[in-house]
Amino acid sequence: MKAKQTVTVTTHAGALSSVQLWWKRRILPGFGVTLGFTLLYLSLIVLIPLSAAFLKASGLGWEAFFRAVSTPRVIASFEVSFGISLLAAGINVLFGAIVAWVLVRYRFPGKKALDSLVDLPFALPTAVAGISLATIYGPNGWLGYPILAWTGIKIAYTQLGILVALIFVGLPFVVRTVQPVLEDLDLEYEEAAASLGASRLQTILRVVGPELFPPLVTGFALSFARAVGEYGSVVFIAGNMPMKTEIVPLLIITKLEQYDYRGATAIAVVMLIISFLLLLAINALQRWSNTGRIR
Amino acid sequence: MKIEAKHLIRTFGTYVALDNVSLKIEEGELVALLGPSGSGKTTLLRIFAGLDFPDSGSVLFDDQDATRLRIQTRRVGFVFQNYALFRHMTIYKNIAFGLEVARGKDRLKPSLIRERVFELLRLVQLAGFENRLPAQLSGGQRQRVALARALAIEPRVLLLDEPFGALDAMVRKELRSWVKQLQRQLKITTLFVTHDQDEAIEIADRIVVMNAGRIEQIGTPNEVCEEPATPFVWEFLQGQVTNQVFRSSRSSGVAEFRAG
Amino acid sequence: MIAERARPPKNRSAVREPARVRLALVAVAVLFLGIFVFVPLCAVFAEALKKGLGVYLASFNDSAAIAAIQLTLLVAAIAVPANLVFGLAAAWAIAKFEFSGKSLLVTLIDLPFAVSPVVSGLIYVLIFGAQGWLGPFLQAHDIKIIFAVPGIVLATIFVTFPFIARELIPVMQAQGSEEEQVALSLGASGWQTFWRVTLPNVRWALIYGVILCNARAMGEFGAVSVVSGHIRGLTNTIPLQVEILYNEYNFVAAFAMASLLAVLALVTLLIKSLVEWHASSQSAVKEQI
C-alpha cells in the first residue's frame, strides 16, 4: 500500500473537479475504512431507525397525521413543553451569562469548585436529578416547604416545578458557549473604550455585548433543544396532569402504553422535525460565532 | 499640556517594573520612551494613561495631581499596539465612539459629531473609508483610524504604545514621519513607546532611554547618541547614525534639515 | 527558564467593575448554582443516608437491585466499546481528511443531542417492536429485541455515540497530521502510525470521552424506559430501578441506587478536571521548549 501511494499536494485541490477531489489519493491511510465504518454505523444506528419513524408516520396519511397531533391534549402538551422550555432557556441565558462572566473575569475562593458545578447537570443522570428535584421542591422538601410556608407557592407538581427542572438541565449550555468567547476577548478593547471616556456599563453594552451575542444565542438554542425533549428530570416533579403539566415526551410514552402507536409516532415525528431544524440552526449559529475569531 | 512623573514605583510581586522614575515632559513635545523588553516603558505609559496605578509616586498633568484619576476622566488619547479597533463597528463608528459616549456638557450635537468625524478622516487621509470595517483595512490604515479615534476626544496628551510595531518596514517609515508631521501640526504633547532606536532618533524631540525599570538618560537624539550618560545607553544606541549635526525629516517629497 | 518577559503581568484596573458590583455578581452566580445544582446534589446523598448507613447498604442486597446493577454494567460494557471504535473511526476520517459532506456528517453525529431520549427509544420500537417493520420477522424467529436486553443496548448506543467522537474530533483537528506524515515517511504502516503516534497524542481526550460516554450510558433513562418494558429483575437498569422504587415510595432505596450514579457523575467531573489540568500543563511545557 505504501508503494502505491502518491503524495498529492492538497493545496492544489482547487484545480481539481469535485469528483476528483473525492477520489484523489490521500497521504494518510485509512480514509476509506474509517469513513466507510462511520457511515455504516450511522446508518444502522441512526438513519435507518429514523427513516422507519418517518415511514410509519407517512403510513398514516396526512389527515390522520394532523388529527393525531392536533387534539387538545397534544396541543396543550406542546404548549407546556415549548413554552416552559423557552422560559427556562431565557433564564439560563441571563444567569448563565453572569456565571460565565464571574468565572472568567473574577478571582475568588472556590472558583474551581463553582466551575465544576456547572458541568454537573451534564454528567448527572436525568432520573437521579428528577427524583432529587422532586423531593427538594415537594411540599415537605428542603426548599419546597419554606417557599410554601412563606409565599404559599407550590413548586412540585406544577408548571413551576417543570421550569425548575428545565433550568437545571439547560444550565451548562449557556455558560460553556459563552466562556470560551469571553476568555478570548482581549481586554484592550475595553481599555480603549475606557480611554475614550466610556463608563464601564457603556463599554460592556457597546463593546463586549456584540461579541457575546452569538454565543448567547447559540447557548439559548442548545438549552432550548435540550429542555424541549427532556424526560427523566421532569417527569417526577411535574405532576403530569394532562392539559396542565404534561410534557410531550411523557405524552408519547402514555400513548405507547395505550398501544396508540400511530399517535405516538405522529407526535414523535413532529418532535424529530423540530430537532432537525434546531440542530441546523445551532450549527449555523456556531459557525457565526466562530467567524472573525482567531483560534 | 505638560505632564510629569515623580518618583514612580511599580512592582508586580517581586518584579520591579518601575524603580523610582521621574520625568518631565513639556507642552507640545514629542518624546520617545526607548528601551528593551522589560524596561518598564509600557508600564510608565500605562500609568500616565490611567490604565495602571503606581505603588507610590505621583503623576501631574499641568502641575495638578492626576495620579488617582480614572482613565475615563483623564482625556488622554491612547493608541494600542494592535490598535484595538472595535471590530463590529464601521470606521465612522469607531472614530465617533468617544464623542457618542460623552455625557453632560461634553456631549456634542449629532451634526457636530458628524462634522468632527469627517474632519478627522480627512486629517488622517482616510476620507471615503467611513463605512468600511476594520477587517477591510490594511495595517497602516488601521493605525491611522486608531489615531483618529484617539484624537476625536481632543485629548490633552497622546500616548502611543509601540504604534508602528505591527507594521512592515516600509509602511513603518512612511507612517512615522507622517505622525511626526501631524504632531507638529496639532502641537499636541505626545509620548510614544518603542524599542526601535531608528524610530526614536528619527522623530523624537527628546528620548528617554530606559532599562530595567530605571531611566538611564533623557536627552535629544543627538545627546543620547553623542554623549551617552551610561554604558547601557552607549551600547543600546551603538552605531546609530544621527546625521551628526543635522536632524532631518521627510514628507511629501520634501526633506527638512534642522541644525543641532 | 522563562526569559525576561516582554510585558509584566498586567493589573488591568481600568476594566474592572466597582467592588460592590463584583460582589453582587459573584453572589448571584453562587446563589444560582447553589440552588439549582448544589442542593439537588446534596439531597441525593442526604436522602439516601436518611435512615442510616445500615439501611443504605441493605438496599444493595436486594436481588432486583443487584440485577439492575448487573444489567447496567452489561449495557455499558457493550455500548462504550462500540462507541469507542466508532468515535475513533469518525474522528480519524473527519479530523485528518478533507471531503465534501463533512459538515453534514458532523451534524449527523450531533443528532442524538437534539433528539428527545423518548423519541430515540420510540424509533427502535418502531422497527423492532411487535408492530414494527421487523416485528413479524423477529417474532417468527423468536428473537426479542424490544422489552429485552438487546433493545436496551441499541437505545443506549444511539443516545451516547456522539460523546467520544465529539471529544476526539477537535483535539485531533488541532493537532493536524504532521506527526502522522512524519511517521509514514519513516516507514510506519497506517496501523502503527495510529497506535504509536495518533492515539498517545489524544489519550487524555480519549479517556475523558470514554468516562463521559460511560456515565451517560449508565444513566440513560428516557430512551431505555421506552424500550425496556420495565420488567423487574430482567430489563431494569439502575435508573429504571430508581424510578420504580421512587414510585413505590421506597425513597431510601431509590436514593441509594441514585447515589451510585451520583458518585459516578462526580468521578466523571473529577476526571474532567484532571484532564484539563493535565492538558494545560502540557501546553505550558510545550511553550518552554
Report on the structure:
Chain A has helices at about 20-25, 30-60, 60-70, 70-105, 110-125, 125-135, 145-150, 160-185, 185-195, 200-230, 230-235, 250-255, 260-290. Chain A is an all-alpha fold and about 300 residues long. The longest helix of chain A is centred in the N-terminal third of the chain and has 34 residues, at about 70-105. Chain B contains 9 helices and 12 strands. In chain B, the strands form 3 sheets. Chain B has a 6-stranded mixed sheet, with helices on both faces. A 4-stranded antiparallel sheet of chain B has the order 2-1-4-5, with helices on one face. Chain B has a two-stranded antiparallel ribbon with strand order 11-12. In chain B, helix 3 packs across helix 4 (about 110-125). Chain B is globular. Chain C has helices at about 20-50, 55-60, 65-95, 100-110, 110-115, 115-130, 135-140, 150-160, 160-175, 180-185, 190-200, 205-220, 220-230, 240-245, 250-289. The longest helix of chain C has about 40 residues, at about 250-290. Chain C is globular. The chains are: A mainly alpha (about 300), B alpha/beta (about 260), C mainly alpha (about 290). Chains in contact: A-B, A-C, B-C. Chains A and C meet through helix 1, helix 2, helix 4, helix 5 and helix 6 of A and helix 1, helix 3, helix 4, helix 5 and helix 6 of C.
Secondary structure layout:
The complex is a heterotrimer of chains A (295), B (260) and C (289).
Chain A: H1 18-23, H2 31-58, H3 62-69, H4 72-105, H5 111-123, H6 126-137, H7 144-151, H8 159-184, H9 187-195, H10 200-229, H11 232-235, H12 248-257, H13 261-290
Chain B: E1 3-12, E2 15-25, E3 30-34, H1 41-49, E4 56-61, E5 64-65, H2 71-74, E6 76-79, H3 91-100, H4 110-123, H5 139-152, E7 157-161, H6 169-186, E8 189-194, H7 197-203, E9 206-211, E10 214-219, H8 221-226, H9 231-236, E11 246-251, E12 254-259
Parallel strand pairs in B: 3-8, 3-9, 6-7, 7-8
Antiparallel strand pairs in B: 1-2, 1-4, 4-5, 9-10, 11-12
Helix pairs in contact in B: 3-4, 3-5, 4-5
Chain C: H1 19-48, H2 53-58, H3 63-96, H4 102-109, H5 111-114, H6 117-128, H7 135-140, H8 149-160, H9 162-175, H10 178-185, H11 190-201, H12 203-219, H13 222-228, H14 238-247, H15 251-288
Helix pairs in contact in C: 1-15, 3-8, 3-9, 3-12, 6-8, 6-13, 8-12, 8-13, 9-12, 10-11, 12-15, 14-15
